[in-house]
Amino acid sequence: VQLVESGGGSVQAGGSLTLSCTNSGFPHENYCMGWFHQAPGGPREGVADINSGGDLDYALSVKGRFAISRDNAQNIVYLQANSLNPEDTAMYYCTTTLPAHRYWGQGTQVTVS
Q1: What end-to-end distance do the CA atoms of the chain give, in Å?
Q2: For position 111, what pLDDT does the model report?
Q3: What DSSP element (H or E) covers 43?
Q4: How many CA atoms lie less than 13 Å away from 38 in the CB half-sphere?
Q5: Beta bridge partners of 44
Q6: In this predicted structure, what is the pLDDT of residue 100?
Q7: What is the pLDDT of residue 99?
Q8: Pairwise CA distance, residues 10 & 76, whole Å
Q9: What's the rounded Cα separation, in Å, for the pair 85 and 52?
Q10: Sign of CA dihedral 36, 38, 42, 44
Q11: Within the chain, which residues score under 70 in pLDDT?
Q12: 14 HSE (CA, 13 A, CB side)
């Protein structure tokens, strides 16, 4: 199982980024995929997830600004992050939970100034 994030960067407040998570080694379309973020010194917190049926869930802090989607043909999960503010600065991780184990990517840094 491999999860590889990309798309992070430095943006000014009000800007947007599109994060991608390319995954392999498991039947992507059968599992819930999610994004977490972790600010320096803080806990890893859930941002958004999308289940195999396409149902969406968001943290209150990003609802209305972020959008999660998935491309099952390409095994990619996206996180469209709009109206970014400095509080969104964090490492963003892609994750999925297969039977008995949760997997994480290496993360992609988002910095908002």
Answers
A1: 34
A2: 98
A3: none
A4: 13
A5: 38
A6: 82
A7: 87
A8: 22
A9: 30
A10: positive
A11: none
A12: 0
Amino acid at 72: N
- Quote the pLDDT of residue 93: 98
Residues 6 or more apart whose Cβ sits within 8 Å of residue 6: 19, 20, 22, 108
How many Å separate Cα 91 from the centre of its chain?
A: 10
Instruction: Give the span between the Cα atoms of 64 and 52, in whole angstroms.
Output: 22
Amino acid at 75: N
Q: What is residue 28's predicted lDDT score, i.e. its pLDDT?
A: 87
- Are 37 and 44 in contact by the 8 Å Cβ rule? The answer is yes
Which pair of tokens denotes residue 51?
């289940």
C-alpha closest to that of 35 among 99, 88, 101, 111: 88
Phi-psi region of 41 (alpha: psi -120 to 50; beta: other; left: phi over 0): left
Q: What is the C-alpha to C-alpha distance for residues 67 and 84, in angstroms, rounded to an integer?
A: 12
Distinct helix (H) and strand (E) counts, the chain: 0, 11
Amino acid 71: pLDDT: 95
Which tokens in the block code for residue 74? Answer: 């390409």
Among 39, 38, 104, 110, residue whose Cα is nearest residue 79: 110
